[in-house]
Amino acid sequence: STIQKQRQELQLLIAELKDRDKELNDMVAVHQRELLAWEDDRQKRLTLAERCNLLNNELNKRNEIIKSLTKRLKFLESQQNDSRATFEYTQQKFKELSQKVTDATVHCQALEEKNRSLHCSVLELSAKTGQLQAREQELLTMLKLKDEVILETTDHITEFTSKFRKLESALRAAKTEEFSLNEEKQDLKLRLKELILETNKLKDDLCEKVKENNKQQEEIIHLRQENCCLRNELALIVEKAKRKDQLLQFAKSKQARTDTELSSLRQIYIKQQRDLQFLHVNLESSQELKQ
């Protein structure tokens, strides 16, 4: 009856271990899916970083264009001042020459034509200055849009840092679980050694019983019954050893799963460190470009 109870208990334990093994396999599959999702997020983050670099380069190009346009505007203003000075000079000259109309009528007509051409050039320069001002307003609006994009990228970076902290906590939990699994493995090894010693002892007992059976031929029937009992006990011990082997196999599979999870978590940690270094470099470069 005790052997049957032990059998039932062992069967229940093996069924429970199979359920736990199935649950762990499901957890590993879910973890793999989470790893794939994290890889997609990492690719998106890298594309965002590349886009930020492209936007920074475009911003530098636009700044250079604005500088060249400001230089052009200053040059045009200097030309406009020169034209105004020449216009004032021609007016004074016209007053002086108006007193000498009789002597220099042809020269006065030439100066009038020159005055007209200068007036046209002044109008053209004023129209160009208006166009340059409108272009400057467009460039200012584009700079504001670039600043908004940079703020969005900084928000994404903070979100990724929070995810990285969560993954670090998961790695610590996995390390603790690995330590507990190693302790269970050592306990199972000790139990296996004890079982081996018990089987050897039972083998020795069986040999002694066989010798006694050869010596005592008169008690053959009693020894046969005892031999049957010993065989049954040996079968139970072998069955027990097989179940212990199954338990060891379950423990080995659990250890393999934990090793794979730890390796995947280490790879994630290394990738995240590289991504964070890349993002810090991009942030420093963007801040330098802003300054």
From TrEMBL:
Superkingdom of this protein's organism: Eukaryota
Keywords assigned by UniProt, alphabetized: Coiled coil
Coiled coil: 3-34, 59-114, 157-205
Name of this protein: CCD62 protein
Organism encoding this protein: Himantopus himantopus (Black-winged stilt)
Lineage of producing organism: Eukaryota, Metazoa, Chordata, Craniata, Vertebrata
